[in-house]
Amino acid sequence: MKLYIGNQKYSSWSFRPWIALKVKDVAFEQVLRRFDDHPERVDFKTFSPTGKVPMLDNDGVKVWESLAILEYLADLYPQKGFWPEDIAQRARARAISAEMLGGFNSLRSECPMNMARKHGALDVSDGVRSDVARIENIWSECLEKSGGPFLFGEFCNADAMYAPVVNRLEIYKLSDHGAVKAYSAAMKALPAWQEWEAAGRAEPWIYPEDEA
Ligand SMILES: N[C@@H](CCC(=O)N[C@@H](CS)C(=O)NCC(=O)O)C(=O)O
């Protein structure tokens, strides 16, 4: 199984299936394709129909779109808990994952994930503040119901979908909420998180458009 990803410093969509595969201990080969225009740049359309990453290739079965990849992994490995066992919890996990995929546009556009950025507050829009308030609400409700440490107790696809937000809230100092602190600590304690972060920090490539 091959997972095509972008730069680990910046590629938030790539991070989602990557961390799920790592936490759930599924073996895969990582293929990193840089975003910039270096001389050996591979056109993303040669391996991904949308020209975007992430893209999973499982022996010829190609799946693009982060959430579709996570669904495919849940189908492939029903015993690994990619979604919560309970049907109501699973529905909720899917709902907040879809909300992440289609929403939070202000946060995503103004506050890019950046694994190497020095922490410092940004002057953000009302849209970002409202996105952060909604995330605080989702995380605190989920953690209260599940008891943590992850949104539905054990790490699942919903945590993968929100993983890059942990970085955004921290580096731009966007929240002091208790649930954000507790959840971020649990996420950052994962060896998979630390592996991705270290790889992102080690990348020498800097893209000004992603340096807020
Ligand atoms: N909805 C897609 C978004 C994928 C996406 O936007 N990926 C970005 C990187 S994080 C990308 O490949 N950008 C390359 C480009 O736009 O040239 C998903 O969930 O997988």
What does this structure look like?
With 212 residues, the chain is α+β, with helices and mostly antiparallel strands. It has 2 domains: 79 residues, Glutaredoxin (3-Layer(aba) Sandwich); 108 residues, Glutathione S-transferase Yfyf (Class Pi), Chain A, domain 2, CATH 1.20.1050.10. It has 8 helices and 4 strands. A 4-stranded mixed beta sheet has the order 2-1-3-4, covered by helices on one side. Helix 5 crosses helix 7. It is globular. The model has no long low-confidence stretch (mean pLDDT 97). The chain binds glutathione (GSH).
By CATH reckoning, the class of the largest domain would read: Mainly Alpha
Low-confidence stretches: none
Shape: globular
Number of strands: 4
Which class do the helix and strand fractions yield? alpha+beta
**Arithmetic mean of pLDDT:** 97
Instruction: Tell me what portion of residues adopts beta-strand conformation.
Output: 5-15%
Q: Count the DSSP helices.
A: 8
- Could you tell me the radius of gyration in angstroms? 17 Å
Number of structural domains = 2
CATH architectural category of the largest domain: Up-down Bundle
Classify the helix fraction into a percent range.
40-55%
Following the backbone from N to C, one meets helices and strands in this order, namely: EHEEEHHHHHHH
The name CATH uses for the topology of the largest domain is Glutathione S-transferase Yfyf (Class Pi), Chain A, domain 2
